[in-house]
Design brief:
single chain; alpha/beta; four-stranded mixed beta sheet; 12 strands; elongated
Length: 214
């Protein structure tokens, strides 16, 4: 027997000795649902706090105030041309059209996207513990490129969409759909740790958190 096999058998022998007389694990293995959710007094508040930690702007908007808040966010990022993906509520488009040039995101190419200053989308999930928003690119969210090329991304998250943690969020997602996880504006740093934003995606992320309709 080689020295490697001898050492391996010695280690396994110690493991067997340590397990002798103990209860065996159930056939199904260790249960993974022992902590489905953690009790959080203000889940939405935690989400907003963690979003802000990533240097993203975040506002909680009351019922009926969303169109005006979207317009204010577009002004805050200095937008002139705003992309609205198919499926965005008409009330948002009407409010934006009064003050900005709207761009239809249907079938838009990279060259046209480079002329867009900001994109407004919905989301599918917000993750409180990490301050992450998730898009699965259904109507209202556009395809992945429209949230990566414009300099600013304004994203609306409903309070009911906020999940406690990543495992809870994953249970709400359809694994067959493409997904984009966004934690703050795009950023990187060089060897001297100088932070640079907007390298791989939007330089500015503005999250608007609103009560769910109904």
């Amino acid at each position: 027997m080689s020295a490697r096999n001898s050492a391996r058998e010695a280690i396994l022998g110690r493991v067997r000795s340590a397990l002798a007389g103990t209860d065996r694990l159930p056939a199904a293995g260790i249960p993974r649902d022992y902590r489905a959710e953690r009790p959080v007094a203000d889940l939405v508040g935690l989400f907003c706090e963690r979003v802000a930690d990533y240097r993203a702007a975040v506002d909680r908007v009351g019922p009926g105030g969303l169109p005006a808040a979207i317009v204010a966010a577009a002004h805050a990022v200095g937008a002139r041309r705003v992309l609205t993906p198919t499926g965005v509520p008409q009330s948002w488009c009407d409010a934006l059209r009064a003050e900005f040039e709207l761009v239809d995101g249907t079938g838009i190419g990279t060259t046209e996207l480079e002329l867009v200053n900001a994109v407004i989308t919905t989301a599918v999930v917000g993750i409180a513990s990490t301050g992450t928003i998730v898009l699965d690119h259904r109507p209202g969210q556009g395809h992945r490129a429209v949230t990566l090329v414009p300099d600013a991304h304004i994203c609306v998250v409903e309070e009911s969409q906020v999940a406690d943690d990543v495992p809870v969020a994953l249970h709400r997602l359809d694994p067959a759909r493409p997904m984009t996880f966004i934690s703050g504006p795009s950023a990187t740093s060089d060897i001297e740790l100088n932070r640079v934003e907007g390298v791989h995606g939007p330089r500015t992320l503005h999250v608007l958190v609103t009560p769910s309709p109904g």
